[in-house]
Amino acid sequence: MDTQRTAAAAPEQGERRAATERVVIMGGTSGIGLATAERELREGREVIVTGRDKGRLDAALERLGEGASGASLDAGDENAVKAFFESIGPIDHVVVAVTGNTAAGPFGSLALSDLRAATEGKLIAQAATAQAALKRLRPGGSLTFVTAGSSGAAIPGTAGLAAVNAAVEAMVPVLAVELAPTRVNAVSPGIVDTPWWDWLDADARRRTFDAYAEAAPAGRVGRPEDVAQAIGYLIASTFTTGVVLPVDGGSRLRPAGL
């Protein structure tokens, strides 16, 4: 992790900041995390991304270029997460975009082992990341979780997803008070076209996206860049904390099936 973005590389951002801010994006090698990394680089911040897959990490770093560095890391490994944060020095912002198993399906047949795995992969992994990051966050920095709109959508077949994401969101206002002056927020995306949906075949994915686009007031599914823009706002807005920001094209405004 020796590549850095300097003020000389981005003079317009250097004029706005006395020193380059550092952002860690856990789960930053694809989808929303990668789009966030690209946006933060454009804003003149140094970016450190992590991901489980070494090949995907290498591809992400090649795409991101100067100012980005990273580590191959399983966010579910608490000791590895602690060691990572101990190794990187002071940081200004942390975005926690890690996720786990889907735990989707009708509640009556939902395997509790899948629900446990989803809880470990998202709630526990995100909480462990936040804990490990605290000693490295500079005063006035920010911590931003990435949850999902399933937490409040009341869509049949998503009880497991809703439970896990709602648990993460429930921490936000508590941590915003407990960890102040560190700002703590979350974004809650609706359906966004990312590799997360690769568990569906192409036809099922298209049908899901088409149905969502028809129902959402915005008239389309989300793009990773939509969520990255919201995360960028939460990073930069020093007067915003304790917020769970929906980024769902307005889909929460319509009952399921309408």
Automatic annotation (TrEMBL):
Organism domain of life: Bacteria
Family: Belongs to the short-chain dehydrogenases/reductases (SDR) family.
SUPFAM superfamilies listed in its UniProt record: NAD(P)-binding Rossmann-fold domains
Organism annotation: Actinacidiphila acidipaludis
Keyword Secreted appears in the UniProt entry: no
Keywords: Oxidoreductase
Keyword Oxidoreductase annotated: yes
A Pfam short name: adh_short_C2
InterPro entries according to UniProt: NAD(P)-bd_dom_sf, SDR_DHRS6-like, SDR_fam
Protein name, entry field: SDR family oxidoreductase
